[in-house]
Structures are given as structure tokens and as C-alpha cells.
Amino acid sequence: MGLFSFKNKKSVVVCPVNGEVLPITSSEDKVFAEKMMGDGFVVKPKSGEFFSPVNGKVSMVFETKHAIAFTTNDGFDVLVHIGMDTVKLNGEGYEVLVSAGDKVKIGQKIANVDLDVIRKKGYLTDTPVVITNLDGKEISLLKTGECNVSDEIINL
To answer: Is residue 152 part of a domain?
Structure first.
């Protein structure tokens, strides 16, 4: 390994929750499916334990706790949006374990979410993971189907 090999390191986006990974275009929400927010993937979670999908820092935790934004160590902005239209729950069923400004590592627990609360209120638990500042860069998914926390899904 050379002295300057760190320049070749790329950001990785991993699965933030155990579940099933699908292309973003399969999202039930047209804003995500049409990539209006950016490109990425959707996870159908099997568990309510969510973990950081990137190495970097928390840039924002939405007041309603349904979404957490991250900035990777090399400047990519990644949004984890837990559930569809779940902003309307005003945080019910969500316990967020991080705050804006916190440094995070892949696999660090960021939230506990009661998926049954989301379902009982009539919302989907589908969780888009979107890179919002690709600036035209194309991405491809390394894996779809069943995923475990920390499985690599995207190399940036």
C-alpha cells in the first residue's frame, strides 16, 4: 500500500437495517421512485433497530424523528427516511440515539423504531436511503434482496 493510497478510498453506503433491499425506483412514494431527492435504494425492514449506513457525521435529525441525514467523510449527503409519510406520526414510535453534529461509524446504532406503531397507523415501513448530492454521478447497487446490517449496497 502506497503512502497516498487513501486518495483512492471511496465512501460506502451499507444497509442500515436487516431487511430486503430494492432499487429506489420501486418505492411506493413517487418523490423517491422518480429520484427527485436523489438516487439510492429502499429497504423493507425486518427489524426496528437502525444503524448508520456511512462513516461520517449526522448533519440533521428531523424534529419528527422519521428521517436522519448524514454527511460522509468525503462529502456525500445521505438521507435515511424511515417509513412512508411517517412525518405525520410526529415522532411516535421513534427513539433516535444520535444528534446533529455527532460523528458516526458504519454499524453504529442510530435509532430504535417500533415498526408495529407505523403499520397500525396505516403507514408503510419502507425505508429509502438516498444520496442527495450525486451531481449527475451514476450509481449501481452492489446487492438487492435480503440484506443484513452493514452489507455494502453502494460504493461512491
So the answer is: no
Rounded to an integer, what distance in angstroms lies between the CA atom of residue 69 and that of residue 105?
A: 14
CATH value at residue 122: 2.70.70.10
Give 55-79 as a DSSP string. SEEEEEE-TTSSEEEEEETTS-EEE
Q: Between the CA of residue 70 and those of 13, 74, 115, 149, what are the distances in Å?
A: 11, 11, 22, 17
Enclosing domain of residue 35: 11-135
Cα gap 118→124, rounded to integer Å: 7
Structural domains counted in the chain: 1
Residues labelled as active-site residues: 81
pTM (2 decimals)? 0.93
Question: What is the tens place of the pLDDT at every residue in 70-94?
Answer: 999 999 999 999 999 999 999 999 9
Residue 151 in domain: no
